[in-house]
Target: Phytocyanin domain-containing protein
Amino acid sequence: MARTIILAIAVTASMASLLQNTAAETTHVVGGDLGWQIPPGGAIAYVTWASMQTFSVGDILLFNFTTGQQDVASVTKEAYENCNPASPISRKTTGPAEFSLEAAGDYYFICTLELHCTLGQKLAIHVTGPAPQPSPGPSLPRTPVNYTVGGNIGWAIPPGGALFYASWASFYSFFVCDTLVFNFANGTQDVAIVPKDVYETCNINSTIAVFTSSPVKITLKFPGEYYFTSTYLSHCSLGQRLAINVTGTSTPAPAAPPPLPPPPPPGNRTSPAPVPPPVQPPPSRQPPPPPASVAPCQVVGGFYITILSIIAVALISSSVE
Model:
């Protein structure tokens, strides 16, 4: 049973990286490679898939299934919750089937074949209005982003094992100054920053830092690889661990200097006008620049934990011991 759940989550979540929403119309292949069928892990497969998407007006849902073995019906919320196929809004029996999302709101779909809905072949999504088109303008520095680890599931033993957090991380690009937010129930979980070997073996014999009060906010101060897990018994082995790679800040390249003026034509033999000596500017009264040790990004307010402070705590602790 656990293996089938892992397969379902892995397949559905991995497709998220291919289905990022853009300003143009997007076609969402329901379930990714899993398609539209009775999911091996139950209803959570389609719940997880939907949670990794952003649906907008004008998008299309594409249901891939074998004609004669499945169908897809658009139904009311009540019919979705009770798996009642009696009065569908619309029904399509030939695969692949497309549904256009023409208005904002909630949409519900089920398979009307016997027991298919009860066994998890149903889908609920929320559609938002079309995003406004941004006006063209100069490139601006990237604004730091807060990432809620695991989305709606948060930081817990995931239903699909370690592949769940691996798939979640593959959906994003992490940059210096971004922040990870770990949400969990105090007393039932914690989050630890650990070395790579501890992450890979789940042998919690050493940690860089452990935090027990939710939410934990960790600002990614430096590029490189980061590893997180829970120190609770068997939580890491059951998939509660995360590895990410952080790249440098994405800021636009400086503008190229203007080209030098062309030299005078060869026929012009007149002597150039004398150039006055340069005027020395008055002494600058601006304050001196900060020392090089100042962190590249600053955080104002909130309980933010930086890797710099974590390493400092770890070094102090080791020296005391």
